[in-house]
Design a protein that fits this description.
By secondary structure, the protein is of the alpha/beta class. The protein is 59% helix and 11% strand. The strands form 2 sheets. The chain has a 5-stranded parallel sheet, with helices on both faces. Strands 7-8-6-9-10 form a 5-stranded mixed sheet, with helices on both faces.
Amino acid sequence: MTRMLVVDDKRIERRGIAFLVAEYALPIQVVEAENGVQALEYIKQNPVDILFTDIRMPVGDGLSLAAEVRKICPDIILIFFSAYSDFDYARRAIALGAYRYLLKPLDINEFLQVIGDALETCRNRQQAKEALPGAGAPSSGMLEKALMDLISGPSDAAALQSLAHRLHEHGVPIETKPLRLILIESRDALSQGALGQLQDMAENCLMGRKIWLELDERRILVVLVPGDLQATDALLLRALEQLQQNIQAEFGRPMRLALSAGIGHAGDMASAYEALENVAEMGFFAEEGRVLAVGSGLQGGGPEVMERIMKEIDERIQGQDMAGVGEAFDMLFDYFRAQGAASVIYTKFVCSEIIARLVRACGLSQDEQARIVENLFSAENINQLQQHVRDIIARAEATSSEESEAAAHRLVSEVMDIVAREYMNDISVDSLARQVYRSPNYLGRVFKKVTGTALSKYITHYRLEQSRELLRRKDIMISEIAKRCGYQDYSYFGLLFRNYFGISPTLYRQQQQAQEEPHAD
């Protein structure tokens, strides 16, 4: 039977809830506690499905209780009821993943509806567990793999259907409760300790179930599965802003946070993630610490923002990264739209100047250059102007595609040489992209296409191969080897080494030394 813990400092309120459960023959066992401290002790010792708690209590308030309970029972259903209708209470309740927020005196019909929904949720969870192999315990690894496959893009309709079915098996009904993706990017590699801190912060700030996907050593993707109480975009952005403030306080600097649009179909996951990556990249031009959202564009910004975008376009033209040129130009138009005050002539002039550099880089004649610029000035609105620019970029891309394969191999070879020279330093996909005048996304795509391996994984593998060579020497401490191979965090180095080679650095060194020692006669 479902167990519900009712917490209120007033006995008459607790008894009233118990009476309603008995009066309407609800299949619920009611347990009572008179304050948050007492309730927390009970939950530590006993399973509870639903926590039905007042907010203001003299000993252990309901919000603090809920925050602590979330750490112990992440899936518990939280229902708050209070005589106080202040919005701040509702906001904090939603941030804690509240299922519902009810006001005293309780409306009986509303109470029965909420409890009925909660019971249905409990039944669905139990059925999902029973439907899975292994004593009904869902495999988080299978769910994470399904989500990663959806983000990468299923190969065909049958694969998509299979992955969508797997989501439902794991209690992720995407069609009825659209998912949101949250991308968290750190400038530096994240240690296991830092990842744990981020997870705790996300748990405290964001409502709903959270699935944690580690994309690489500095990027985390949080798949947010909303509960029955779904936050509005405004509340969700406010919760992310609170998370950003907590990150700033804990790590001494902000991280890049980006929020996707709602995803209501498994087949839309890949495009939603691509849009999320694009908006995250715009964070380079946005105010540091700002939470970015798909569809929000660049909201304002001074002339220095446009200067940075134009510099980015120039660098990508020099690197013959036509896809990157298009992405950067789209950012420029987002800037123009957000500003709203730039004159038409000035906007066309800026575009024509950059396009002239692009067409020169593609080897077009002066007459062709003049005709292209003339077309730009004939545009009647900003949408036409943007379409002209896209057409020109597409033409430039087609012109340069004849030698694209050979150029891609040259680019990959150059990057591999840099990794071989600088693997001991703080290198990343971003820093390598800057050195070869490409965008990180473009460089990552080309490297994966040519080698079949993600660039971040190649860097890690190269470093660990070098560390294996150094471990054969007896005169270098393992902590020093980690630093020589680019890892300041020894624990993180040890974890990576074990994951790649199935053995700890210490044991690997011992085995190598044993093999080199002469055998006794």
